[in-house]
Amino acid sequence: MTAPDLEFTVTGAEPARMAAVPTLHFDLDLRRTGGGPVRSVVLTTAIRIAPARRRYGAAEQDALVELFGLPQRWAQTMRPLPWTRLTTTVGAFTDHVVVPLPVVCTEGVELAVAKYLHAVRDGSVPLEFLFSGTVFHLDAAERLRTAQIDWSREAAFDLEVASWRAAIGDTHWVQMSDSAFARLHDYRRSHALGTLGEAIGSLLTTAEQDVP
Fold first, then answer.
1. Domain ranges of the chain
2. What residues have CB less than 8 Å from 21, skipping those under 6 apart?
3. Residue 28 CB burial class (10 angstroms; 0-12, 13-18, ≥19)
4. Is the dihedral of CA 81, 82, 84, 89 positive or negative?
5. In the prediction, which pLDDT does 22 show?
6. pLDDT higher than 60, residue 110
7. Pick from 26, 76, 70: which is nearest to 52 by CA?
């Protein structure tokens, strides 16, 4: 039997329920289009955002200047944004199998992907999935063989912005150093504020009042 020939299609995405951290689950349909049955697959998936594949409103353009510069230069500066890389082990199948791909949705504003996802207001985000890895199969003599999947195997998927926002929820996390956290905590206590969120709000109000 010849090595399996595989086709990759991303069919959906939804926020993970009861996840410890905000996570999106993508559904990957892995289909055998030729060769013999699959014994297993060690699959590597690279996911990136393809920002040039969609249009942007005026507010979105303004928010994306930090990433790509002025819109007049986007033809030269707008490049794909790497999001994540996953390794997944897939069990035996004959025709096709649906493989869950869990992707953690970090929102640290220092990350280009997070900045982009915060900037887009609605519609969908164009994603590109690139696949590689190893396929295990049996030859005509029932001996275990391997075949490689190269990076030419790709799939496109449009992620609804609403799905990402549903995954991260309405409570946001801010990463800061110990010293910055201590200063914020002292400010909250000295101003008799209930939460760190209230302390940040108070600081922002003061800063906005100081702007001429």
1. 5-168, 178-210
2. 104, 105
3. buried
4. positive
5. 85
6. no
7. 76
Residue 65, CB-side half-sphere exposure with 13 Å CA sphere: 7
State the maximum Cα–Cα separation within the chain, in Å, rounded to a whole number.
Answer: 81
> Which is it for strands 81-90 and 144-160: parallel, antiparallel or unpaired?
unpaired
Percent of the chain as helix, strand, coil, to the nearest 5: 30, 40, 30
Residue 207: phi and psi, rounded to 5, are: -65, -40
d(CA 126, CA 124): 6
First to last CA, the chain: 75
Distances from the Cα of 66 to the Cα of 24, 173, 198, angstroms: 26, 21, 27
Domain 5-168: assigned CATH number: 2.60.40
Give the Cα separation of 151 and 131 in Å (integer). Answer: 5
Structure tokens at 131: 């696949």
Q: How far apart are CA 41 and CA 47, in angstroms?
A: 18
pTM here? 0.82
List, for residues 122-170, the tens digit of each pLDDT value. Answer: 899 999 999 999 999 988 888 899 999 987 889 999 999 999 888 887 7
